[in-house]
Amino acid sequence: MGIEIERKFLVEGDAWKAVAGEGLACRQGYLDSGKGTTTRVRIIGERAYLTIKGATSGITRSEFEYEIPVPDAESLLALCGAAIIEKKRHFIKHAGMVWELDVFSGANTGLVMAEIELETEGQPFILPEWTGEEVSADPRYRNAHLARHPFSEWGAS
Prior knowledge:
Elements: E1 3-11, E2 24-34, E3 37-44, E4 47-53, E5 60-68, H1 70-78, E6 84-94, E7 97-104, E8 112-117, E9 131-134, H2 143-148
Antiparallel strand pairs: 1-5, 1-8, 1-9, 2-3, 2-6, 3-4, 4-5, 6-7, 7-8
């Protein structure tokens, strides 16, 4: 069984740009999000994936990811309607680990987050200078939530 252990942080300032490469365009949508599970389709760069995630316990959840043909992913994204996330993903090496930094666009413009995947919940790591508040436990920052409740609408009542 696949397991994902992930910590998420908001990104402060632009210092990350000095260490980030070009990044990959990413579009993803959600086919189902209910009963603690999420089914996601993602095209990142020239590759596509179908991912099923289980309920979160702490910062851990089950994850099953399968590469699929890009044309299939395009068709699946069409089933997601308007609930599509667009972002650019940067992979940044820091203190022997790889961080994934996402610069959101579209309805989530203004949101920049970084995440690190760990082998255990207690695994130590060093925070880059550009990380801010940790949002691992805040469900609003999960991509499935952002697809249906975009960051740009959070201030609206």
